[in-house]
Amino acid sequence: MMKIGLLGCGNIGHIIARHTGGFTIAAVYDEVYEMASEIQAISGATAYRDFTAFVAADFDIVVEAASVSAAKLFAEEVLAHNKDIVIMSVGALTDKTFRETLRSRAREHGKKVYIPSGAIFGLDNLKIGRISTIKRLLLRTTKSPASLGIDTKERRRIFSGKANECIKAFPKNVNVSVAMSLAAGMDTDVELWVDPAVDRNVHELFIEGDFGETYIKVTNFPSPDNPATSYLAALSILSLLEKIDDPIVVGT
Questions:
Q1: How far apart are CA 173 and CA 71, in angstroms?
Q2: 190, 141 contact by CB (below 8 A)
Q3: What one-character DSSP code corresponds to residue 171?
Q4: CA distances from 5 to 70, 116, 216, 239 (A)
Q5: Rg of the Cα trace of the chain?
Q6: Cα separation of 127 and 207, whole Å?
């Protein structure tokens, strides 16, 4: 059975710990040791105070569920220890230098960097589309004023631009657009809307190309224990982990 090391012990870490199926959690690390101890109590994993000791432990793959800064700080060291890594904080990969360095290190050590689908559906469609020509790639995200820290009484657009620009203005709201950009091989157009009539995150994907047109709408339920976290994003990591060793691969 595959053994994982969990980097980041917040809400997503707790969801992973409660739903282990085709894998076990062998080691956990968080800058706040008490949070790592909570996962240890749930899963029986060893909680580490020191990242160097954590990454040297006996497991197969690191699951990063911490933050963009943690992904950028630790991912190279994970690969250097001959371990694969799942990066949940995909916003880290908007840094092209960092992204290409990770690609190089992964090839050097014969390892993989996995990006879960996160809070949307349709990444398979984008990977297919990039083989031909994608003419339109737009993500329209609508969120409640409270989730964005904005006081407004009406629906309005607060950002329009590229995904790599959105991360500078709204660093906590960019993961979906970055995942789309990586799958499609091109920068995604992003519209961010605030709407007092919604209480869930709504993602609309508009994709047009030589292959035809696709429209996908995803309304995300929040995680039961943390409204700021998409439950679908957490489940996408579990899906990836449970099928990663399956010799039959479904989807592109």
A1: 16
A2: yes
A3: T
A4: 14, 16, 33, 16
A5: 18
A6: 12
Check 14, 81, 109, 203 and give the catalytic one.
203
Spatial CA neighbour of 79 closest among 97, 96, 62: 62
109 catalytically annotated: no
Q: Encode pLDDT of 179-213 as tens digits.
A: 999 999 999 999 999 999 998 889 999 999 988 89
CB-CB contact of 26 with 58 (8 Å): yes
Output the six-digit token pair for 35. Answer: 């949070």
The tens digit of pLDDT for each residue in 90-129 reads 989 989 999 999 999 999 999 999 999 887 888 887 887 7
Closest CA to 20 of 48, 54, 55, 44: 44
Answer positive or negative: Cα dihedral of 252, 106, 115, 143: negative
Asked if the model's pLDDT at residue 77 lies above 70, the reply is yes
Take residue 56 and report the two structure tokens written for it. Answer: 């040297």
Which pLDDT does position 226 carry in this prediction?
Answer: 63
HSE of 4, CA atoms in CB hemisphere, 13 A: 28
pTM: 0.90
Q: Hunting for tokens 């990977």 — which residue is that?
A: 127
